[in-house]
Amino acid sequence: MQSKDYVNISKAALQTGVAAVTLRAWERRYGLVKPERTPKGHRLYSQQNIEQIHQIVSWLDRGVSVSKVAVLLSEPKLLPSKGIVNDQAWQQVQSELSNALITLKQTSVDQLLDKWNKTMPFINLCEHVYLPSHHYLTHRWHNEPLGYELEKSIWLQAWQRQLTLMTLRAEKQKPLASIWFINIDTAETTLEYFLFYSLLLQTGIRIHAINKVDDLDSLSRLSEAKSYPLVIFGNSRLCSSDIDKLATVKAIWGKNVFSVGYMASIHTQELCNIAMKHSGGCITECWRSSETQSWLEQIISEQ
After folding, report:
1. Residue 81 has pLDDT above 60, yes or no
2. Which of 115, 127, 128, 189 is the most exposed place for a label (fewest CB within 10 A)?
3. What is the pLDDT of residues 103-135, one digit of tens each?
4. By residue range, what is the domain housing residue 191?
5. How far apart are CA 131 and CA 145, in angstroms?
6. pLDDT tens string 136-167
7. Total domain count for the chain?
8. Is 2 a residue whose pLDDT tops 50?
9. Is residue 80 part of a domain?
10. Largest alpha-carbon pair distance within the chain?
C-alpha cells in the first residue's frame, strides 16, 4: 500500500465536505465506507473510498435515509440522479424539528441535532433543514404567538450546545489550521453565524471566536496576540467609517483576512476596492463558493 494513494480522515473530510465524526458514524453504525487501517489503527481512505463518500452524499442530498444507502450502493445500476431531490423527505425532517421546538421539547431538539449532525453532511442539513426551518420559525415569531420567546431561547441554546460539542470533538483531533472568527453583528446572534462556525469546525479548523465586536479598530490587537488568519462574519450594512477600519484590518492581515455573510454582498464594491477577499449571500452560498474554498485551501496549506 502506497501512502500517497491514501489520505487520513482529516483530509478525507476536507476533500468530501463530510465531517470526520460523520465518517466514523457511517462506518460504525451502517457499515458504510470501510477504509484501510494503519498498524496503529488510524483510518486511511483510498480514492475509491472518496468516490463512495461522494455517492453517499448524493443519495442523502436527495432525501434518502442514511440507513437505506448501503442497499443502494450495492446495486451499481442505481446511481443517484442529478438534480432530483425528494423535497417531501426533507420537509418531514423540517417538521420534526419545528414541532419539537414549538412544543418546547428542549431535550428532543437537542437529540435531533445531535443525531443529524453526527450522521449527515452538515452543509446538506443547512440547505435542506436548518435554514428552511429557521425561515419558518422566524415568520412564526414575527406574529409573536404566546411563548414565542421561549421557543427562540431554546433554539439559541440548542445551537450554543452544538458548538460546544463540536468544539470538544475538534479539540481531540490535530487541526488542519487555526483562525480567528469574528462576528461584527452587534444585534442578536444569528443562526447563520452558528452554521458557518459549525462548518469551519467540521472541516477540521480550530476556531478562536469573538462574538459581537462593535469596534473594528480593536481587531488590530488580535495580530499582537496570535497571527492566525481572520474570518469576519456579518449580515448587516456597515457605515463608511467601518469600511475604512476594514481597510486597516486588510493592511494588517493582507491575504489572510476573509469576509463572509450578507455584509460582503452589500459591500462587494468597497471590499474589492480594498482588495479584501470575500464571499457574500446566505451561508450555504458563501461556503460553497470557489472564493471561500480556495481561501481555506490556502490557509490550510500554509499552516
Report:
1. no
2. 115
3. 999 999 999 999 999 999 999 999 999 999 999
4. 173-302
5. 21
6. 999 999 999 999 999 999 999 999 999 999 99
7. 3
8. no
9. no
10. 63
Tell me the CATH number at 188: 3.40.50.280
Tell which of 73, 106, 121 closes a domain. 73
Contact call for residues 114 and 11 (beta carbons, < 8 A): no
Whole-prediction pTM value?
A: 0.90
C-alpha cell at 43: 483510518
Contact (CB, 8 A) for 198 and 166: yes
**220-227: long-range pairs with CB below 8 Å, 24+:** 220/248, 220/249, 220/252, 222/180, 223/252, 223/253, 226/178, 226/180
- 262, three cell numbers: 450578507
State mean pLDDT over 277-301. Answer: 95
How many residues are there in the chain? 303
Encode pLDDT of 44-65 as tens digits.
999 999 999 999 998 898 888 8
d(CA 23, CA 16): 10
